[in-house]
């Protein structure tokens, strides 16, 4: 896991950009790669690549980047891990390619030389890279299937700037920071800024599963090579006709396969262990794969003795597996001390990420450089209540007469009456609940679209127009699939990608820790869909049975609570009157304000404040080894 940056002044009429911009972007990303850094600039000065290295595979200097082929025909700056790089290398060696290192980075160079842009179809892993092709005078950008690794670009029609973080691009001082209304409104609707938008018109995310080509004629539109909805719909339509035993055997084989691939490293790989099925299964399968098993659990003092306390069950599982386990406790005081640093490193505003920040810090304090996370299990194995509630809502509402005509009128009449007693979402069921896109928005929204205008000072027409665009984007991700598969597509495309994966990236990189997600694997998702296991209740039961060692019944049957952090309680204690609000609404307002005021967010008038070297705040929390 690393940080990358690139600059390409493709318009021959423009002045070649200087190395100062690239260095500023690289310096901001120091935390992403404290083990080394490098820069490369073309002979004509029009192309530059930069890299920050977190050494995981081939720790020698042979793994330094940017890396080039002999003669310099191809140069790459790469962030991520290619889990099938050994298999790919063997094939390439059979075709005569010679290697100078043991890295997956060099595999990418030779794979591009062999297959060109079609190379991405061969990759299994998490990745974002910029590759310069000297012969074609072009820059090739690529991002992995799920969007696990971020990649942002800013194109001003003369030059393109690329980086792993929005704030790294802002650090160049050459970005159009005009607000993007969809990015701002989208944050309050979703609790995150929806891809491919950011808070700025001048910065876009390269979509997940996409590539982009930039040459002297400028940047081509992103080209999709992977689409989650299409893949799941196809797999679901081609369901395997197997009995229960065969299905269990195939799922176990697929789970072992993804865990073994995600354990490939030249450093220790730990496991984030909670009291849930997903992380417990990963830990158990990692133990089967052999080697040293190290696990980390995060506990919150406020949750001791409550249903949200994950520590007792997690420690019991760790003991059963014979793991070297660390439990690290976090208090409100830790949150207070770390808050400014957390806000500074938060790349885009989000209501999540606090949990990822602290669990990554816990891993760092436990001496880990890489850890596996159970992220993605609920989206794949239908663990959320949404998998039942959304199809039920749609089936009840879609046939109601005149719902489209009266939905808005009913909402306007009921919302003021419901507001003093609880959620105003009930007032919008007719307006939104008749299709999957609207029902999903209703379920996931922090603020409903018609509430956003009051927060971002927009007119109702403007706010609703932007939200209509977002609803259309949600609808465009769907295909005609089974109910649960449709919800899986929505959760995987929106919540998991733009919130969970993005937050895990910036939060873990803040502490120079690589987080791997074995349950977010293209091959695994295809197999699970083919087996018909994207189904509420059925999927998680099947998953819990994959380890050879049976998990404790208390874990297998535990009611889902999610990995939560007592942020609302902490914020109310800090400034209750200012940040009160149902659920995480108060926290959303706080995060947004900090992203705008520049005091600790790292952004002020389009530039980045602070040092990229401020990588971690030491915990004053207690650590317990088991």
Written overview of the protein:
Strand 4 and strand 5 form a beta hairpin. With 626 residues, the chain is α+β, with helices and mostly antiparallel strands. The model is unreliable at 599-607 (pLDDT under 50). The strands form four sheets. Strands 4, 5, 6, 7, 11, 12 and 13 form a seven-stranded antiparallel β-sheet that branches. Strands 2-3-1-9-8-10 form a six-stranded antiparallel β-sheet. It contains 24 helices and 21 strands. Helix 6 crosses helix 19 (483-510), helix 8 runs parallel beside helix 9 and helix 23 (567-579) crosses helix 24 (585-597).
Summarize the structure.
The protein is α+β, with helices and mostly antiparallel strands.
Pairing-aware structural class of the strands and helices? Answer: alpha+beta
**Sheet bearing the most strands, described?**
7 strands, antiparallel
The best one-word shape is globular
Helix content: 40-55%
> Which range does the strand content fall in?
15-25%
| Chain-averaged pLDDT | 89
Distance between the termini: 29 Å
Count of DSSP H/I helices: 24
Strand tally is: 21
Radius of gyration: 24 Å
Which spans have pLDDT < 50 for at least 5 consecutive residues?
Answer: 599-607
